[in-house]
Amino acid sequence: MKVIKTEIEGAVIIEPRVFGDERGYFFESYSARWFNENVSEINFVQDNESKSKYGVLRGLHYQLPPYTQAKLVRVVKGKVLDVAVDMRKDSPTLGKHAVVELSEENKRMFFIPKGFAHGFVVLSDEVIFQYKCDEFYAPGHEAAVRFDDPELGIDWKIPAEDLILSEKDKKHPNFREAILL
Ligand SMILES: Cc1cn([C@H]2C[C@H](O)[C@@H](COP(=O)(O)OP(=O)(O)O[C@H]3O[C@@H](C)C(=O)[C@@H](O)[C@H]3O)O2)c(=O)[nH]c1=O
């Protein structure tokens, strides 16, 4: 397992050690002991999975206090561009984002601490996306930022006409109007 820093303090990429043999492969997708020693002392309490087709963009989502969530995200099938936007009001990188390509090939995971808005876009025909959260879903405390706010300047890598968003995700506020953490 290797920890790779991103341009934003706290948001890190995790590269698992993959054991390949004639049967296929094996890797530890999560070890509480390793994670607590090498990344952060976290108690994950919920696992989620979503399936999406090419062009689907989910984001940029977060939960408000007291239900802020840290997330450990990965792709089981396909490929995404994964983005975390720093919403921490006291952070020197407030409003900046980290981008990571996650795929079934590179098997990378992305750890997004509390204080970030998160989203991804699907670059392959289909994606199965899995993630762990350290706080339960709190529907009354959902918050979000527009994926295409020019102030954030995120390059989603696929043409705007290919994007597929939920009705909810089309209506989020810009970063300037969003609630900071
Ligand atoms: C996130 C979530 C949704 N739901 C329900 C609510 C809704 O009816 C249905 C679909 O929810 P959404 O449209 O919000 O799903 P989605 O757009 O996939 O939301 C997710 O996006 C990514 C980018 C994240 O970072 C996640 O934290 C989460 O916000 O699932 C739960 O029951 N539990 C959950 O934890």
UniProtKB/TrEMBL annotation:
Keyword Signal: no
EC class name: isomerase
Signal peptide interval: none
E.C. no: 5.1.3.13
This protein's pathway: Carbohydrate biosynthesis; dTDP-L-rhamnose biosynthesis
Keywords noted in UniProt: Isomerase
A matching Pfam family: dTDP_sugar_isom
InterPro entries linked to this entry: RmlC-like, RmlC-like_jellyroll, RmlC_Cupin_sf
GO molecular function, one term: dTDP-4-dehydrorhamnose 3,5-epimerase activity
Reactions performed catalytically: dTDP-4-dehydro-6-deoxy-alpha-D-glucose = dTDP-4-dehydro-beta-L-rhamnose
Quaternary data: Homodimer.
Protein family according to the UniProt entry: Belongs to the dTDP-4-dehydrorhamnose 3,5-epimerase family.
Known function: Catalyzes the epimerization of the C3' and C5'positions of dTDP-6-deoxy-D-xylo-4-hexulose, forming dTDP-6-deoxy-L-lyxo-4-hexulose.
Entry protein name: dTDP-4-dehydrorhamnose 3,5-epimerase
Organism: Butyricimonas hominis
Source lineage: Bacteria, Pseudomonadati, Bacteroidota, Bacteroidia, Bacteroidales
